[in-house]
Design a protein that fits this description.
A: alpha+beta, Trna Endonuclease, Chain: A, domain 1, 5-stranded mixed sheet, 5 strands, about 30% helix, B: Nucleotidyltransferase, domain 5, flat
Amino acid sequence: MTGRMYNKRRIGRQYERAAGEYLASLGYEIVEYNFSCRMGEIDIIAQDEEYLVFCEVKYRSGRMMGHPLEAVGSKKQQVISKCAVYYLMAKGLGEVPCRFDVVSVEGKEIILIKNAFAYAGR
Amino acid sequence: MNKREEEKLLRQKEKLEKERQRLKKMRIYEEEYGMYGRICGIDEAGRGPLAGPVVAGAVILPADAQILYLNDSKKLSEKRREALYDEIMEKAVSVGVGIIGPERIEEINILQATYEAMRKAVADLSLKPDVLLNDAVTIPEVEIKQVPVIKGDAKSVSIAAASIIAKVTRDRLMKEYDQAMPGYGFGRHKGYGTKEHIESLKRLGPCPIHRRTFIRKFV
C-alpha cells in the first residue's frame, strides 16, 4: 500500500493526464504523452491550431508557494528545448511553428501559461 | 470604494505601468535610427508552410505610438493579434503588404519569394521610408538603408507590428482558402505541416495552393 501511494511516477502520470484533459478542453489536440529522448523528457506534445506545443506539467499538492514558472528553471527549459528539436527531427517535421507551455496542477486548480518560455537550446 | 476595489485598481495600474515599461524597451531601435527619418518595420509570415502564399508586412509607426500589448505575432493569441491588427491599421503612418503565391514560390524558391514579398510590401507603402528595420534579413535590390535585427519581431515595435500585419493577413487568406478547398484543415493549421494536414494530404492529394516542392516527401 505504502509503495503504491508514494510511487511518484504514477502520481506524476495522473497529473499529466489531468493536464492533458484540460488542454484538450481548450481545443488542443494531444499528440503524445511523455516523449523521451537521451537528453530528457517532454510531458505533453499537443497541437494548438498551427502551433506544435511542447508542454511541461508541474504538480504541487495543495497551496503552492511561488510562481509555476519558477519551477521550470533555465536548465529544464534547455532540456525541453533540445528534446523538442530532437522530436522535430525524429518525426521528419520541417518548419513548423512551435511553442512552449507550462501547465501547473495545484491540487484541483489547473493553470496554463502559454508561451511560458522561448527556445532555450543555445 | 472599499478596500478590495482599491487593491484591484492598484494592481491594474501596476500591470499597466509594467506594460508601458515593456513597450518602452521595444523602442530602442526606433530611437537609435530616428535621425534617419521615417522608420519602417518589415516581417514576413508563411515561410515554412506546405501550402499557401508568403506574406510580408511593412509598417511605419508614428514616433509617439502607444500600442499596448504589441509583441511578436507568435507570442500573441489569435484574438489579440486580430485586435492589434485593427489598432495598427488605425494608428500607423503607413502599412504595406506584399503577397507572393505558391506558383511563384515554385518558380523562384521560398527565400527569393520572401524577398519579393518584402519588396512588394515596401512598394505598397503610401510614404517612402528612410530606414528599414528587418527581422534578421537584408533584402537584396532595395535602395533604402536596412538594419537587420536578430529576433527583431520581439525587440522592435515596428517589426512586431509588421509581423502582426503579415500574420493576420495570411491567416485570413488561409481561412478563405479553407472555404474553397475544405478537407485539409487550412483554417486551423494555416498550411503548416501538422499531423492533420499531412494525413489529409495523403488522403486527398494536393490542391492548387500546395507548394509542390515542399510536399514531395509526403505524397
